[in-house]
Specification:
267 residues; 1% strand; binds heme C
């Protein structure tokens, strides 16, 4: 094979590996598990391919640390991906997989830093064009995908509450962020430790809260600050049951729940 063709192949392979790794890294949570599995297998395949393919690249004046950074990045990405495949079968590998995945991100960044030094100035960008393009595309796609998936899940939860609200009250005419805010800030007298939802979730829902009793940090509840909010129907319902009972001394109606979520989605 011509050296030029070889180099082109390697760049394409590199772009695919970066893309696969980025997608796998960004889709670690439950909602996007199929995509996570697919991209993880892609990384396994691509790392294996690199060791199988008999490419002899002629790069006489490549500094040794750069070669090491390549081997380390490959090894870590491979280990992370293989442990992930393993964890799919053996759940106790999960922690190891997460640790390796975090580490491999740092090793990959070190490799990028080494590459920046080796391909000084702007030259590196020209050499890594496919990788840069794929990287940017993948990031955009993954960001929009996760945001879209989260929005769809939240809409589904709201639709369920709307159906229940209509059943509870035929005059129901949609949720209101204003009513949600009033519910959020209203002072009650049931719980001596926490008068309002804001007691734990703070006056400004875009900020992190703190459990009034345990002192444990609670992530922001406003969707703008925490896009994962109100996307897991079971967890949302569970918390409504618990928090409404402990703060209001009663269950929240479907209208109240929908108002609350609508308020948080508007923040
Ligand atoms: C005593 C502290 C405390 C108070 C007061 C409180 N919550 Fe919570 N809330 C929590 C904790 C802890 C969580 C779970 C941790 C998390 O989701 O970050 C939570 C989570 C939630 C969730 C889940 C959100 C999601 O994305 O899954 C909802 C819904 C919720 N709270 C509603 C309310 C409502 C409504 C009120 C007021 C009636 C309220 N909370 C008051 C502590 C509190």
């Amino acid at each position: 094979m011509q050296p030029k063709t070889q180099m082109r192949l390697v760049r394409l392979w590199h772009a695919a590996l970066v893309g696969g790794f980025a997608v796998a890294y960004l889709t670690g949570d439950e909602d996007t598990y199929a995509m996570h599995l697919f991209s993880g297998w892609l990384v396994v395949g691509l790392v294996a391919l690199r060791f199988i393919l008999p490419l002899k690249l002629n790069r006489p004046n490549r500094p040794r640390y750069f070669t090491w950074s390549i081997l380390a990045a490959l090894g870590m990405a491979g280990a992370a991906a293989v442990s992930g495949v393993g964890a799919d079968v053996l759940p106790w590998l999960e922690d190891l997989h997460e640790g390796l995945a975090e580490m491999s991100l740092w090793v990959a960044l070190a490799h990028v830093a080494a590459a920046l030094v080796v391909f000084k100035g702007r030259k590196w960008l020209a050499r890594l064009k496919p990788t840069a393009v794929v990287g940017a595309l993948v990031l955009l796609l993954a960001a929009s995908q996760t945001a879209l998936a989260a929005d769809a899940a939240r809409d589904a939860i709201l639709a369920t509450y709307a159906g229940q609200a209509k059943a509870e009250n035929p005059a129901f005419a949609g949720f209101s962020a204003q009513r949600g805010e009033a519910l959020y800030r209203a002072k009650n007298s049931v719980n001596p430790d926490a008068a309002s939802c804001a007691a734990c979730h703070t006056d400004d829902p875009t900020r992190a809260g703190r459990h009034v009793k345990t002192g444990r940090v609670i992530e922001p509840v406003a969707v703008s600050a925490n896009p994962k909010r109100f996307t897991d129907a079971e967890k949302v319902e569970e918390r409504f049951v618990r928090d409404c009972k402990s703060i209001l001394g009663r269950a929240c109606s479907a209208t109240e729940k929908g108002d609350y979520v609508t308020f948080m989605a508007s923040r």
